[in-house]
Amino acid sequence: MDPSVAVALGLLLCISCLLFILSWRKGFGRGKLPPGPVPLPIIGNILQVDLKNIPQSLCKLGKQYGPVFTLQFGVERVVVLHGYKAVKEALIDHGDKFADRGHMPLLEFVSNGLGLIISNGERWKQIRRFSLMTLRNFGMGKRSIEERVQEVSKYLVEELKKTKGLPCDPTFILGCAPCNVICSIIFQKCFEYKDQKFLYLMKLLDENVKIVSSPWLKVYNSFPSLVHHLPGSHHKAIKNYHLQCEFILEEVKEHQRTLDPSNPRDFIDCFLMKMEQEKQQPQSEFTIESLVCTAIDLFSAGTETTSTTLKYGLLLLLKYPEIAGKLHKEIDHVIGRDRSPCMEDRNKMPYTNAVIHEIQRYIDLVPTNLPHAVSEDIQFRQYLIPKGTTIIPLLSSVLYDDEEFPNPDQFDPGHFLDESGNFKKSDYFMPFSSGKRICAGESLARMELFLFFTTILQNFTLKSPIDSKDINTTPIASGFIKVPPSYELCFLPSYNM
Length: 497
Fold this sequence. Notes:
- This protein is an alpha+beta fold.
- The protein has a single domain, classed as CATH 1.10.630.10.
- It is built from 17 helices and eleven strands.
- The strands form four sheets. The protein has a five-stranded mixed β-sheet with strand order 1-2-7-4-3. Strands 5-6 form a two-stranded antiparallel ribbon.
- A hairpin with a 2-residue loop joins strand 5 (378-380) and strand 6 (383-385).
C-alpha cells in the first residue's frame, strides 16, 4: 500500500474513533439512555443486525433488552420502540415530542430537507397542513375521488383482459393504477399505460424503491460522509431522484403558463397560487423547489406502497385459494357482476374487509416505520432521551403481536373477525404508522385497496402457473419496505368461474 494512503487511512480511523467516543460520551452526559448491546468503535452495533432482515433482528433484540432499547449505527444513536404499548406511548401519548423526522442522510441529500417526508419543524407543519387541505379539496375521502378510483379500476380491468388469461407478471400493471390516481390529483391527468413519459416515471419509482430497501442503504445511512464517495447503488438513486425532479418541473412550468387562479385544476395549481400569496414573505416555505419535492413525496408514498400491497395481496390469494374463493362468494352476493364496487359496499363485506386488513398486517410493508426523532430532551419511562435522538417505532412488533393476533406468522383473516363473522377493529393495526406523522394519504390508500381488490376479483379468477403449495411469499428485501418476490399469474375472466 502506498505510504500516503496508509497514513490517510490511519488518520481517518483515529478521527472516526474520536468522533465516536465524543458522541457516545455526549449522549451519556445528557441522559440515561435505554439499555442495549455494547457497540464497537466506529461501526457501532451494525454487525449485530442482519442487514438483509433488519426488522427480524430488531424484534430479537427487543425480546432480549425490553420494549425500549438503544443501538449505535456508526456515530448515530438510535432508540428502538418494541411493542404496541411503547409505540403508542411515544407516537400518540407524547406525539408532539416524537413528531420530528429522524436522520435519513440519502433523502436529506437529494431533497435538501424539503417536502413532506424529510422536513421538520414549522416547514413540515406548513407543508403537511397545506397538502392535507388540498388533497381533501380535491376529493380525498369524498365521492369525487371515489369516482376517479372507480374509473382507474375499470381501465385496470381492460388492461388485465389484454393478457388473455396467459401467465403474466402483474408488477407493472398494478403499479400503473395507483400512480394514475396520484397523477390525476397532482397533474389532473391520467396516462395511457403505453405512454413513454408514464413508463419512464414508473421505472424511476420502481428502481428507487428497490435501492432504498436494500442492505446497502443502511450502510450508506450509517456512514454517509464516507460511503457517499464510494461506488454503490446510492448514486443510481440520487440520479433517479434528479430525473424525477426534471419530470415534475416540466409539469410545473406547463402549469405556470396555463394557470387560471379562478379555477385551480390540481395540486400543482393550488401550490402555485399559495406561492403567489406568499411572494412577499422572504422566508416562505412555498417555493418551486418545495413544490417539486412535495410532489415527488406524494408520488413515492402514494404509488409504490399501494401497488406493492396489491402485488403482495394477489400473491397471498394465489397461495391460499380457499380464501380467494370466499372473497368471490361475498363479492357475488353483495355486489354481483352488473355494477362497479363502491365504498358503501365495504360495511356489508366483513370478510373482504378482514382479508384486506390481514394482507396489510401480514406483509408488514414498512416494518421499521420511517425514523422519528425527539424534538427536545424527554423523560420517557425511566429514561432521559436527548433532543435529536433518532427513534425507530418498530411496526413489526405491533402487527405481529401474538396476544392481539394469535399465530401472527399465519395468514388468517380471522384476526379481524369476531365469533359471529363480523369485522373486528384493532388498535394494533398500524400499517400507516400512528400519531402526528401518520401517512397523509391513509384514507385514499384504504379506498384504493378496497376498490382495486374487489374490482379485480369481481372480473377475474386468479390462477397460478405453479401449485399453490410451491408458492413462496418470503420478501426478497426487508429494508425500507418489504419487496415481494417476482411471480406470474393468470387473470381468467370471471365467466370461466
